[in-house]
Amino acid sequence: MKELKANGACHCGAVQYQVLGEVIVNGLCHCPNCTRSKGASPVHLIALKGEDSVEVTKGEEFLHTRALSSFHLVTCKMCHGPVMQYQEGMGFRAVFPVSLDLGRGDAGSDHGADRIPDAWKPQLHLNYENRLFDWDDGLPKFKVFPPDHPLNSDGTALY
Ligand SMILES: [Zn+2]
Ligand SMILES: [Zn+2]
User: Fold this and answer.
1) What single-letter DSSP state applies at residue 60?
2) Which ligand minimizes its atom distance to the CA of 59?
3) DSSP run (H or E) holding 140
């Protein structure tokens, strides 16, 4: 279980934060909460142990939290970009590698979503039962989050 320490920011930069914590899951999530709130499927997220694993260092006044049942999405009021998300009472915070400075190098200001280091590539698929289409990428696939009920690429039970 690896530790993640990185700086992150929303799309416009008004909100900046530091991430520090033990990685619970680094994966691609296909659940409707993740995907429909971002307009993309799957969503690459890293879940960190502890409700204090994300510290907002700038722009706290721009934070907006939307709760849909137990799912909480924190965004920036200025650009509506995602900052983090969590499930009430589950003791984690999930952040998005696309918004983190993971040492991807300087590809220029127009390339903010340049490739991430191998160490931070997603390790598995979560909520794979909600996929839009099959993924034959060799990564382990799980029906739910936290990862349980392993599936094949076509969605059938692995065992
Ligand atoms: Zn913003
Ligand atoms: Zn999800």
Assistant:
1) G
2) 1
3) none
Residues 42, 34, 50, 115, CA torsion sign = positive
CA 115/CA 27 separation, integer angstroms: 16
| Distance from residue 15's CA to the centre of ligand 2 (Å) | 22
pTM for this model (two decimals)? 0.91
Query: From ligand 2's centre to the CA of 36, what distance in Å?
Result: 10
CA 157 / ligand 1 centre spacing (Å): 41
Q: In the predicted model, is pLDDT for residue 103 greater than 90?
A: no
**What is the Cα–Cα distance from 99 to 7, expressed in whole angstroms?**
9
Architecture of the domain defined by 3-103+118-151:
Beta Complex (2.170)
Domain ranges of the chain: 3-103+118-151
Assign 116 a pLDDT band (cuts: 50, 70, 90).
confident
Quick one: which ligand is closest to 56's CA? 1
Could you tell me the CA-to-CA distances from 50 to 7, 29, 89, 111 in Å, in that order? 17, 20, 10, 31
CA 33 to chain centre: 12
Q: Is the pLDDT reported for residue 62 higher than 90?
A: yes
